[in-house]
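stage 2 :: seqdesign
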């Protein structure tokens, strides 16, 4: 009985990871090609290949095997390293909360006055 519950939890985790990998694949597909070069990351095609393979592995193989874990690592690398760099290059850092372009992290920059 306990093993079936554990397998059920793992199947839900694997489904969630597969959906998340698919969302990151779509995110990588809609980014501009030149943004990858400007962010000094690998090419867009390479990341699309990595994320397609990761998504396929997460949907086709059991999570506790070796290859889906590598796919999860590829999705994590894209999420925490490549995606923020692409957002910074393309200016997609989120909604602005007012202020001017000369505002720093601690308030407006007044030119040393």
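stage 2 :: out
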């Amino acid at each position: 009985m306990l093993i079936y519950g554990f397998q059920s939890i793992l199947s839900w985790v694997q489904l969630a990871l597969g959906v998340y990998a698919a969302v990151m694949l779509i995110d990588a597909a809609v980014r501009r090609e030149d943004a990858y070069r400007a962010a000094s990351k690998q090419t867009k095609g390479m990341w699309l290949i990595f994320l397609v393979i990761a998504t396929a592995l997460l949907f086709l193989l059991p999570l506790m095997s070796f290859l889906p874990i590598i796919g999860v690592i590829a999705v994590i690398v894209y999420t925490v390293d490549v995606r923020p760099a692409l957002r910074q290059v393309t200016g997609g850092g989120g909604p602005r909360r007012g202020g001017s372009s000369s505002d720093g992290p601690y308030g407006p920059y007044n030119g040393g006055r």
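stage 3 :: structure notes
- Strands lie at 103-104, 107-108.
- The longest helix spans residues 2-30.
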